C-alpha cells in the first residue's frame, strides 16, 4: 500500500497567501529644507537619487487644477491669452449672477484655475498696496435664482448694475456697493452699501467682518425693506477670503463657502 503525506489545508493556504517579493522595490522619499524647497528621491536599493526639486508655494487652488490645464500653458498659452479667453467667456452672462449653463461654468472655472497656477503675487497680504483701490465684479458663482430673484424684484422691476469693492488699506476697511436701476420709480442711481473691516489671516487670506449696511435713496429702501435679510444673506462678504490670483488688472478670490469671484480694477 502506498502512502502520501497530506499537508494540512491551513498551512498550504497560508503559504499561497504570501506574495513573492518583487525585485528592486522603489521607495519615494521627499522632504522640505530650510529654504522652503522640496527634494524628492527614488530609492533603488543602496542608492538615492534626486528626481525633483521645486519651490513650495501656499496656493491650494492651483494644486487642484489638472495636469492637462498646466500643460496647456506650458505649450505656449500666455497669461495674457488666458485672460483674453476669460473675458471672451464672460460675455453675455451678466457676471453669472442669474445662473450659467454647466458647460460655460466649466469653461470659466478652468480658465480661472489656469490663472491661479501662474499667480504673480503668491503672498498678496504681504503686498497690500496691490490690493487697495476699487475693483468691479465681472464673475461670481454666487447666484440669485427662482424665488430669491422674484422677491428682490430682479426680474423686470429692478435691474442690477455694477458690483464694486472699494478697499481702504490704511483703515482696514472694505466697502461693497451694489448699484441698482429701478425703472418703475425713475431711479437711476440707487445703491446697497455694505461696510466691513478686514484683518490678515495668512499669506493669502483675510478675514472679513461685517459692520453695517445702508440702502439709498429712501424709495429703494421701501422696496427692499421686507427682504433685507435675504439681500444681505446673498451679498454679505463676511468670512474668510483667499486671494488666489492678483496682478495689476485682475483679482481672483475664493470665500469660505467655495464661491469664486473674479474682479477687474476700475477707477
From TrEMBL:
Keyword Protease: no
InterPro entries in the record: PAP (IPR039633), PAP/fibrillin_dom (IPR006843)
Localization in the cell: Plastid, Chloroplast
Keywords, ordered alphabetically: Chloroplast, Plastid, Transit peptide
Domain Plastid lipid-associated protein/fibrillin conserved: start-end pairs: 81-263
Matching Pfam families: PAP_fibrillin
Keyword Iron: no
Record GO cellular component, one term: chloroplast
Family: Belongs to the PAP/fibrillin family.
Protein name: Plastid lipid-associated protein/fibrillin conserved domain-containing protein
Amino acid at each position: 500500500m502506498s502512502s502520501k503525506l497530506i499537508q494540512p489545508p491551513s498551512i498550504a493556504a497560508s503559504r499561497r497567501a504570501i506574495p513573492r517579493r518583487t525585485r528592486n522595490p522603489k521607495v519615494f522619499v521627499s522632504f522640505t529644507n530650510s529654504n522652503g524647497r522640496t527634494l524628492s528621491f527614488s530609492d533603488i536599493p543602496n542608492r538615492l537619487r534626486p528626481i525633483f526639486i521645486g519651490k513650495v508655494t501656499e496656493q491650494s487652488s492651483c494644486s487642484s487644477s489638472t495636469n492637462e490645464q498646466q500643460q496647456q500653458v506650458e505649450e505656449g498659452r500666455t497669461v495674457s491669452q488666458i485672460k483674453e479667453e476669460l473675458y471672451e467667456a464672460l460675455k453675455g452672462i451678466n457676471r453669472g449672477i442669474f445662473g450659467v449653463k454647466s458647460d460655460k461654468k466649466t469653461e470659466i472655472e478652468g480658465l480661472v484655475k489656469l490663472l491661479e497656477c501662474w499667480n504673480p503675487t503668491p503672498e498678496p497680504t504681504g503686498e497690500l498696496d496691490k490690493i487697495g483701490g476699487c475693483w468691479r465684479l465681472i464673475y461670481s458663482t454666487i447666484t440669485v435664482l427662482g424665488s430669491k430673484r422674484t422677491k428682490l424684484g430682479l426680474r423686470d422691476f429692478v435691474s442690477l448694475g455694477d458690483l464694486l469693492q472699494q478697499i481702504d488699506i490704511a483703515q482696514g476697511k472694505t466697502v461693497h456697493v451694489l448699484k441698482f436701476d429701478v425703472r418703475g420709480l425713475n431711479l437711476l442711481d440707487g445703491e446697497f452699501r455694505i461696510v466691513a473691516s478686514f484683518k490678515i489671516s495668512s499669506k493669502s487670506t483675510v478675514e472679513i467682518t461685517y459692520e453695517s449696511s445702508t440702502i439709498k435713496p429712501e424709495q429703494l429702501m421701501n422696496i427692499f425693506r421686507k427682504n433685507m435679510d435675504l439681500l444681505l444673506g446673498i451679498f454679505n462678504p463676511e468670512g474668510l477670503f483667499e486671494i488666489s490670483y492678483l496682478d495689476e488688472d485682475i483679482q481672483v478670490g475664493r470665500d469660505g463657502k467655495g464661491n469664486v469671484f473674479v474682479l477687474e480694477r476700475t477707477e
